[in-house]
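Pipeline run #58 for the internal structure catalog. This entry was flagged by the ingest filter as a single-chain record with no existing model, so it goes straight to prediction. Upstream metadata was stripped on purpose; only the residue string is passed forward. Reviewer on rotation: M.T. Logging verbosity set to normal.
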Amino acid sequence: MFLSKVTASKLTSGLVFSIVFLASTGAYGDDKEIARFEERLRLSKLSDHMICGGAPTRADLAFLARTRGVKRVICLLDESPDVEKEASDAKDLGVVFDHKPLAIGLDGPLEEARVDRAVARNIIDEIRATTDGTVYVHCQSGRDRAGFMRFAHRMIVDGWSFVDALKEAMDGGFSPAKLPGFFEDMKLLASELDQLPALTPMPISNEDLSAKEFTAGIGSQSLNVKIRGEGSPVYTLHGGPGESHKLFRPYLDELSKSHKLVYYDQVGCGGSTKPQFAEAYTLDRQVEELEALRSVAEDEKISLIAQSSGCLLAIKYALKHPQRVDKMVLVSGWASAEEFRKYLELVGSVMPESEHLKYEYLVGQLRKAMRRPNDKELAILVGLQLKGIFFGKLTDAFGNDWLRRLEISAFVNAAMEKEVFREIDVRPELPKITGIPTLVITGKFDLVTPPVVVESIAKGIPGATFKVFEQSGHYPYVEENRLFLDTVNSFLATGKSDG
C-alpha cells in the first residue's frame, strides 16, 4: 500500500523514493505486469533520451525512474490540479518536472484543436541536447499530444520521412481524423511553413475539357486523343487505373509551346471505347494500345509523362519498345505492389471525421448491396479523400473544380486491381531500361505513393534522376505547377535534370 500524501510530505525525498521503489517492485514484479504497465501508458521509446506515453501516477513515475532511467518529466497537459500533484510527486521522487502545454483548443471541438509548434520544437531541441538520463514526455493517453511529439522527434531528430513518422504516430493511436488541426500542424512542422498554401483551380472551360477532337482507331477499339502544339512528341499516361487525361489539363498545356503534346484516354476510360470484358484491361494490352497510337500518329520516337499507375504502363512500354522512347518522366508511381500496399491505408485514415463518416456510410451501403461501386460512387469515394491526397489546404473552389475532372471507370479499376495493386513487381526488370533518360518525381507529402515507394523506380533504372517536390502530395504538377513545368521542360530539352 502506498504512503498517504500527508505521511509522504514529512519524509525526505530519498526515503519516499525508497518506499515507493519497494511498492512499485510489487506492483510491477513480473514480465506480465510490466507489459501491462507499458500498454497502459502506451510507452514508446524513441531514443536513449526520450520516451513518450500517457500520464503517470506516482508509482508510475517511480517505476520509470528505476527501470527506464527517467530523470526528467515533461507534461504536455493544460494546467490542472492533476498537473500540480504530478509536479509535487516528481519533486518528492527527485525527478525534474517541466510543464509545457502543447495543445491549443483541446477543451473545445476536437476538429479545431491545434498544436503550439514553437513548444514542440523547443521540447525537441532540449531533448536533443540531453546527455544524462531519459526524458519522459506525456499527455493523458499517449495518443494525441505525445503522438505529435513522437512524430516531431522522428522527423527532426531521426530524419525519418514524413509518411513513416506519421505512420508510427498512427500505429501508436494518434488519429488525424479526430484531430485534423494536429495533422495540418504535422505538415507545417515538416515543411517549416507558417501556413499551408491554398489550392486554387487553374481555369479551363467545360467545352475545352470535354471536347472530343481526334479519335484513333486501334484495332476494334478507338482512343479519345487531343493534340496540342508542334515539336518533339510528348505523350501523357494517366493513372487510376480508370481515370482520364482530364486530370492533366490544363496543368501540362504549357508544354505544347515547345512540344507536340498528346493527351489520350486509355481504352475503357474517358472518351475512349469501353469494352465490357475484363480481359481487355491489362498492362500488356495498354502497351499495345500505346504503340498502335504512336504508329497511327506517325511519331518515330516519343517521350512519356506518366502519373501514378500510368508509370507502370510507361515502364512496360519502355521495356518492350525501348527504341521508341526518347525520354521518360515518371510521377508518383510505383514498381512494386508490395511496397505500394505498405502505405495503402494512410490516405483514408487522415480523412476528417465528417468525410470519414460519409465514406463509411457509402461503403456500408455497397456491402449491403453486395456490389462494387459504380463510376459515380467511386469518384465520390476518391473525392472524400482529397485532403489526404494533396499537401496544400483544400479550398471549396479547388475541390469542386477537381471533382468535375475526376471521372473513373470502376470497371477498368476493378479489372486491373489484381495486377496493378496486388501482384505487379517490375523491380527486377528496371535495370534493362538503359539509354533512356528518366526523371522520377515524387511529392514529399504523398500518402498514396510516398517518396520511398517512388524512389524504387529511380534506384532501378540506370542513370535515372530522382527529384522530391517539397510542397506536394500525389500531384506535384498541380501543387507546384511552375516548378514542375520548368523542371520537365529543361529535362525534355537536355535529358538532364537540374537536381
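catalog note: Confidence is low (pLDDT under 50) at residues 1-26.
catalog note: The domain at 206-340+411-494 is CATH 3.40.50.1820 (Rossmann fold).
status: ready for reviewer M.T.
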